[in-house]
Amino acid sequence: MTSAVSGPDYDSRGLSSDDDSMTTNMKDSDVLADSIVLYGGLLVLTIFVFSWLRRLFPKVYNIRSWVEELKTYLAEDQYRFFSWLWRVYMITDDELMNECGMDAACFIHLIQMGYRLSLIALFNMLWLLPIYMTAEDSEETSYITDRVVRTTVANVPSGSHRLYATVLAAYIMFGYTMYQILVEFEWYTEMRHKFLRKPMVRHYAIFVRNIPVAYRSNISLEEFFRNCFSDDAVLEARLAVHTPSLGRIVAQREATLANLEHALAIYEKEGVRPTQKDKLLVLGESIDSIDYYTEQLEQQNIQVKRRIEALQAIVSGAQLDTAQSPEGHTHTPETQDTDFFSFNGDEAPAQLDEPKYPQSGSPVGPENPEKIEQFVPAEATKYGEGPHGSLTTATTDQGRTASQGSLALMRSSVTTAKAVAGTARAVAGVAGKATTTASKVATRAVRESVFTVAGIATSAATRAMSMLLGEDGEVHSAGFVVFTKRSITNAAKQMIHHEKPFCMEVTEAPDPKDVFWANIGRTHKDLQVGMLASFGASAGLCLLWTIPMSFFASLSNASAVRQDFKWLDNMFNQYPGLVKVTEQLAPFLVVAFNWILPNILETITLFEGPISSGKVQASKFIKLAAFTIIQTFFVSAISGSVIQTITEIIEDWTKVIDLLANTLPAQGTYFMQILLVSTATTAGVEMLRLIPIALAILRRHIGPRLTEKERSKIYVGLRPLSCPQDFEHADYTAQLVLYYMVLFVYAVIYPMTPLITSVCFVFMGAMFRGQFIYVYDKYPDSGGKLWAHYIQVMLTCMIIAEITIFGLLGLKKAVQQLPLFLPLLFITILFNFYIRQIHFRVASYLPTRECLIEDHREGAFDISTARGAYLQPSLAADKELLPETEKKDSSAQEEVAADEEMATNSGETGNFSDCLGATPYETDQARNSSIQMGLSLLSRSFFSTSATKKSG
Question: Is 487 exposed, middle or buried (0-12, 13-18, 19+ CB in 10 A)?
Fold first, then answer.
């Protein structure tokens, strides 16, 4: 094997076998000592300063003790000056999960597992150090004089029997790691099931994507799953709707409300009504700000109310393209007569949503007045226009309650139909005295008239609705379904619901507050293209990232970097003291440059259409982990001529193993520097909270801040202290990949490595426990899903580390040891396959027996509270917003109560203004016009029937 790093005039940290000799940079011990003093001292200073500041400014460093939305009993005790470092370890896992979130508990456990692996590596160090240090002298290792390098496998001659110790240490290290993974899986499964047993709405809901056209309504989707399970299995279904215009109006209304409250605050504080220039007038006349924003808010409230009720009607389940004949048959573009489970493609069985009408010849008269009510379309009955005139809910024959809604699109036709129905009762009384044949004919004529009137009114309402909604109203092919039992939800998540791939695709629903509604309506094609674009962008960024990473890694070996950059050679010759500074600066540049990487990758991840922050964190973590492995153990391992090495790899990619085996042993000091820098900088950023404090200071002087409500809001990215940013689980979990990778590779070839990793893990455990307890909100919480992704990456890291050690043994000509090492590699691969079979699936779902136990537990969860939880924010917005001062005004509350009482007593349940926000005068006009048209058509039909009878 030939070395990828060579240079006749410069020292190199890589192992070289060109002439069966090895050279190394003699300054490893000095570099490591300087790094420990510099970054270790910085870490100790950070701990001291933080321990002092946290007691001096508790509102800054103990946010969860005074912010109502974040309060937890764990934050009540701040402990003493230094005692917090070990007292936070006394908090149990259950307390962490309940008060800080499942994600926080899983992250802490990954740190603890790293500490335990470091302990077993320290055990190996106790007997590896004397074996490596007392290796026999040889010409191959005669040049090694550095005391740190003498403790590594580099001090062992090729073919030495001491390499058996390396193989034995690898078996102990990786065998214990596999055992720990099994132990941790037991813990994770137990905690994950505890989380799934919690009374949360998300545990009763699923997310459905790529819904066929036939089921793109709330009622149709509910009926689909009711037919799959039982009539009482589904609480509700909520499809997403395209609402860009409504979203803009809601945002404008929020801004108007903020401006109005600000103007009222000025008036309350200064006693003078604020004024502003009228933008509509050329001369810009001054107008009263309070009056202006009050009028604007009233208009926007009307617009929001109209659009919300109209959109709710559309998505509720009215099949506008379905017409009903007087005989009660359903006419669609392609009439079907199929069983429920025999439909194909996007077609739905007709009987799912088929309204029931009286059959031809049903007696209608004073004896059966309820029959005339059935002339009203069934959609109206389902949504509140039934025999009792209720606008809230209507109960079906099975006793279940249908979805609430005003059904704005059908209001006009329903009003007309009810008016005709009232007249038809009188006609029916006369017709009842005639012959039976005449009664049947009259009944059919009345019914035809009713449907003619309803069709005309519906057509007019549809055109009006189209003008009102504009670009809003398209029902997306995705939504949420909430079930009544955990067992049914658990089954629905794991079932195949359609014969077409990706059709009716079901996944676990995120928390209602964590839904990314902008991505809910993306089509399957759009998502596939987005995933492809995300992969391409990530790969391209990884290649571009190699350039700065290669340069920073080269700076760690000043003698090698001179080969590629002559200007650095000249500068080092002129200022020799810069060599030491550069070698200390290199790992800091790597860590600092990687701080901007998560923001870039998060933007790329959004191409994939994630529906929650948990999905974003998971996808971003995978990308960050790949960057860590590639950039750290491929690019950073290149300690010699960067350009020359990359060229050789492009020519023959099989040289990667030789390269890693050749350069990684000599890069142990550099990687320990990176770990120290990463730990120290993370401590400074997290514990001292310099960035949040700076943003809070700016927010205190920038933006609206007259009232407490204004001061507590985020303004152009400036956050007050009471609103801490969410913890970036993906970013910090990806950093742990670096710690684990360094430990796996260097625990057996650089035995001093676990000294650094153990200290880092112990400190990070205390630091992050404190941050979760005192600063960060427990939400959003994915339920520990990132832990499962991390274990999968960890298994890959184990295989990469073992392959690297195998290559090193080959480079060391360990002919006798290589056959003994191969079984470990095979065992790890088999363990990888074993652990991926069922362990992750078992932890993902709550067992059926436990689901049934929770379903029968009394008072476990009131499922009725889940109704409306997955209604998208634009549709869930308040139909009327008032400023805070008006909400507190008791007189205003009395007026609202009086208006509600008048509306209730009036009995006008079918008010057209409820849908479109029309005035009472406009409502009366519409109602009178509908009644007149209905009476005219009914009279025409009745006299036509009489004429037919006479001619007969």
Answer: buried
| Burial bucket for residue 650 (CB in 10 Å: 0-12, 13-18, 19+) | exposed
**Cβ proximity of 232 and 395 under 8 Å:** no
SS3 505: strand
* Rounded-to-integer distance, Cα 617 and Cα 620, Å: 5
Q: Is 585 exposed, middle or buried (0-12, 13-18, 19+ CB in 10 A)?
A: middle
**Percent of the chain, pLDDT > 90?**
44
* 252-269 pLDDT per residue, tens: 999 999 889 888 988 888
Among 187, 177, 182, residue whose Cα is nearest residue 835 = 182
What's the CA gap between 390 and 408, in Å, rounded? 14
Whose CA is closest to 915, among 407, 320, 468? 407
Higher pLDDT, 358 or 295: 295
- Residue 335, C-beta contacts closer than 8 angstroms, at least 6 positions apart: 350
Per-residue pLDDT reduced to its tens digit, 498-513: 999 999 999 999 999 9
The three-class DSSP label of residue 748 is coil
CA distance 344 to 558: 69
- Kindly list the distances between the CA atom of residue 637 and the CA atoms of 201, 518, 784, 804, in Å, as whole numbers in the listed order: 48, 42, 33, 12
The DSSP line for 768-813 is HHHHHHHT--S-S---SHHHHHHHHHHHHHHHHHHHHHHHHHHHTT
Tokens 């398209």 sit on residue = 474
Measured distance CA(331)–CA(772) in Å, rounded: 60
Q: Which two tokens stand for residue 5?
A: 């790093």
Compute the half-sphere exposure of residue 754: CA atoms within 13 Å on the CB side of its CA: 21
**Nearest 10 degrees: Cα torsion 413, 417, 420, 422:** -130
Give the per-residue pLDDT at 563. Answer: 60
- Residue 574: which residues within 8 A CB-CB, separation 6 or more? none
SS3 326: coil
Distance between CA atoms of 483 and 206, rounded to whole angstroms?
8
By C-alpha distance, which of 689, 473, 726 is closest to 598? Answer: 726
Closest to 633 measured CA to CA, from 439, 805, 818 = 805
Q: Which residues, at least 6 apart from 418, have a Cβ–Cβ distance to it below 8 Å?
A: 376, 385, 910
Yes or no: say if 446 and 424 are a contact pair by the CB < 8 Å rule.
yes
Taking a C-beta distance cutoff of 8 angstroms, is the pair 24, 666 a contact? yes
pTM: 0.76
Which residues are CB-neighbours of 179 under 8 A, at least 6 positions away? Answer: none
Kindly report the average pLDDT of the chain as a whole number. 76
Amino acid at 403: S
Residue located via tokens 């009203």: 376
Q: Look up residue 79 and give its two tokens.
A: 């402990």
Q: How many CB atoms lie within 10 A of CB 21?
A: 14
3-state DSSP assignment of residue 605 = helix
Residue 752 confidence class, pLDDT cut points 50, 70, 90: very high
Cβ neighbors of 788 (< 8 A, separation 6 or more) are 188, 840, 843, 844
pLDDT, tens only, 814-846? 889 999 999 999 999 999 999 999 999 999 999
* Neighbouring residues of 142: CB distance < 8 A, sequence distance ≥ 6: none
The answer to whether the beta carbons of residues 121 and 753 sit under 8 Å apart is: yes
CA 674/CA 325 separation, integer angstroms: 77
The whole-angstrom separation of Cα 167 and Cα 156 is 13
Contact yes or no for 261/709 (Cβ under 8 A): yes
Inter-residue contact 104 to 726 (CB < 8 Å): no
Residues 150, 801 contacting (CB under 8 angstroms): no
